[in-house]
Amino acid sequence: MAFTTKSTIASFGGKLFKLSHPSTTTTTPMAVNLYLPPQALSPTNPQRVPLLVYLSGLTCSPENCSEKGFLQARASQLGLAILYPDTSPRGLDLPGEASSWDFGLAAGFYVDATTEPWSKGYKMESYIVKELLDTVFGDAEYGKYLDREKGVAITGHSMGGHGALTLYLKYPGLFKSVSAFAPISNPVNCPWGQKAFKGYLGEDQEEWKKHDATELVRGWKGGDLKALVDVGLADGFYKQGQLLPENLEKAAKEAGVEGLTVRYHEDYDHSYYFISTFSADHVDHAAKHLGLL
Amino acid sequence: MAFTTKSTIASFGGKLFKLSHPSTTTTTPMAVNLYLPPQALSPTNPQRVPLLVYLSGLTCSPENCSEKGFLQARASQLGLAILYPDTSPRGLDLPGEASSWDFGLAAGFYVDATTEPWSKGYKMESYIVKELLDTVFGDAEYGKYLDREKGVAITGHSMGGHGALTLYLKYPGLFKSVSAFAPISNPVNCPWGQKAFKGYLGEDQEEWKKHDATELVRGWKGGDLKALVDVGLADGFYKQGQLLPENLEKAAKEAGVEGLTVRYHEDYDHSYYFISTFSADHVDHAAKHLGLL
Questions:
Q1: B211: which DSSP letter?
Q2: A115 and A199 Cβ atoms separated by less than 8 Å
Q3: Helix, strand, or coil (residue A64)
Q4: Is B158 annotated in the active site?
Q5: How far apart are the C-alpha atoms of A36 and A76, rounded to whole Å?
Q6: Do B276 and A13 touch (CB under 8 A)?
Q7: How much is the average pLDDT of A144-150?
Q8: Residue A235 catalytic?
Q9: In this structure, what DSSP letter does residue A39 have?
Q10: Which residues of chain A neighbour B12 with C-beta distances below 8 Å?
């Protein structure tokens, strides 16, 4: 189904389109922001551009990173589009949906829920990898600026870093590269992940492992990972053991999987101050694997 | 009086300090953010750096531009500190202080109020040009990173653009350069300015003119202005006649004042998307006049 354009905002020579579309996967309208760089919108020499998908963290909507992440600054120089999906369905009005900041609304964890009542529409995994990508590339108005052949990369922050890593690992070849800011790297072993997976997937921890980057990397057969991860050492959630990037590193090493770079940054926290500081590196990482650098 | 450090946040290789200090001018605690670039904080080769003051617009606090303006990205490369003051006293609890978004709280308009009850503490002009600058340069903890001899530049957005322009014009020599994003350029002739000036300064419109960039530029005797102004042509407030940058341009031209560059940008609005896009240019403008470029 086509996008409705809610607003259009000039940003770094390109344009950010605030969109909405009716999702058959979530059964709700879904908000999504699409940034098109100046190269795509050139009136004289328009170029079809590749796409970077940015998955947001807990409590966020497409707006936060569009305004505070600074990815557009570098994407506008390289000619890369950015897609900012939402973090859950909104409007299902399920019991308890809004009672936690780390479960339910804005906390979809990029899985397809199998438990009632969440299985009604909390299917963010299928929404992202199937419906949303097909919708944006197939859209009559916006698809013409994009080139699926050039490829799609994925990145994300915190819960969205978990989403980026797991969707990259679960769907080999769908994304040309992955990166993550402060990702929840081993959710089966942290409180956020355990709460979300129990709620969305039930008690069977074998099911949880199918959505855990550290578990998935053990079975990875796709060659070099093409993965960049940044973590701040002053990140309170890192210190609480919610992120566990060392477990991901260890699992990759044990499995003989190459191509995972994890950088630890003194003094940096979990906020958009952290994301914005390193956003150019993540755009460059994607651009390199999309043939732009 | 010394600053209390509320928090310290790593950003673009430097640090943002969220500070508070008791102001004798406003009679309240005042929040202020200070960004120190990596050059100032180098453990091996620290350099005392010049300062750019950023004045925020209506409804804003020191937080908005610190997080969304991206001035730090460029300032960190050049070695420039940035000071983000608040937009009004907070905590006076004056009658009607919170009843408008464009007058009172977060709407101090960078003037010293002469009418009751606002004259009690709404003295943002004196606060910025005297107390705050003296406090930051004289501070035992933070002053040592700054070099007042290298100079201070000023910039701002909307109401803060009005503040930057008028304080630059009223205090020749205090600031080495001025720039503004979508400034209220001729407040005596726009609804925002008329409401604020009537409220803070009373009925005498001759008093209003002392705080109007367009009026002040007519009497400017300080040589070339060293002023950069950016305006978005999709800015709703520009289209409503709240900004009136053409009046500033016309007055400068009629007065034979050189050195004012006003740029109009198709499609850009009044938001931080606009500010962030052009922030590097404004940092460069300040850096040039502070001897960094």
A1: T
A2: yes
A3: helix
A4: yes
A5: 8
A6: no
A7: 97
A8: yes
A9: H
A10: 276-277
pLDDT band at A186 (very low <50, low <70, confident <90, very high): very high
Give the closest of A12, A67, A273 to B272, CB-based: A67
pLDDT, tens only, A108-133? 999 999 999 999 999 999 999 999 99
User: What does the pLDDT read at residue A47?
Assistant: 97
- Average pLDDT in the B249-272 region? 98
Which residue of chain A has the CA closest to B64? A68
Residue B1 reports pLDDT greater than 80? no
Q: What is the pLDDT of residue B181?
A: 99
CB contact under 8 A, B269 and A70: no
Q: Which of A270, A282, A285, A289 is catalytic?
A: A270
Q: Which pLDDT belongs to residue A225?
A: 97
- Is the Cβ–Cβ distance between B277 and A12 less than 8 Å? yes
pTM (whole model) above 0.95: yes
* CA distances from residue A218 to A165, A173, A186, B35 in whole angstroms, order as listed: 13, 17, 12, 43
pLDDT at position B53 over 80: yes
| Closest CB from B9, B272, B276 relative to A273 | B9
| Record: contact A10-B276, CB cut-off 8 A | no
Q: Is B93 a catalytic residue?
A: no
Out of B10, B265, B277, name the one closest to residue A268 (CB).
Answer: B10
SS3 A18: strand
* Mean of pLDDT over chain B: 98
A66 torsion bin: left (phi>0), alpha (psi -120 to 50), beta (else): alpha
**H/E element holding B22?**
strand B14-22
Q: What distances in angstroms separate CA A79 from CA A35, A69, A174, one per listed residue?
A: 10, 17, 20
Of A66, A76, A158, A177, the catalytic one is A158
In contact, B87 and B30? CB cutoff 8 Å: no
Q: Could you say which of B158, B177, B185, B279 is catalytic? A: B158
DSSP string, A167-218: HHHHSTTTSS-EEEES----GGGSHHHHHHHHHHH-S-HHHHHTT-HHHHHH
> CA-based angle A182:A173:A155, to the nearest 5?
20
